[in-house]
Each structure stands twice: as structure tokens, then as C-alpha cells.
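Researcher: Here's a chain I'd like modeled. Treat it as a single chain, no partners, no ligands.
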Amino acid sequence: MIDIPANLIAHYDVCLNRENVPDKFRSFYRKWLRYYLDFCKKYRLPKSQQENLLHFIKKLQTLGTLLTTLTYYFSLLLS
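Model: Modeled as a single isolated chain. C-alpha cells:
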């Protein structure tokens, strides 16, 4: 798995603070952010384009992953 750049973690933490995400859940949020970034790297997609989130969610659907929570996590990144 790739390492999340420090500036992106800082931005994401600001978003998590704004959404009042408890500290005990932040590692879970970062894990799914890392999955998303890995997906973008694997398929050579720009990570900042919102439509790529839809591609990621569709891929997760094919894997049978719960999407409601994940959609919320990634909406923080793109807001």
C-alpha cells in the first residue's frame, strides 16, 4: 500500500475535525482513504476528480463491500 502524503493527511484531518469524527475512528477513515488512493494509482486515475470516487464505489460494489459508510468517508476527502 502507498503512504499518504503528509499534506493530504493534514487536509483530511481538518475535514475529519470539521465533521466531528471521534479520534478512535480516524485510523479507519485513513485506511479507506489509502484504499482509494491505491485504487487511483492502480487504474491511473487522478485522485482529486470526484467522478473517480464513483468508479471506486462501483468497484467496491463488485466486491460486495458496504458502501454507505465508505461513501461518507470519501465525501469528506472531496468536500
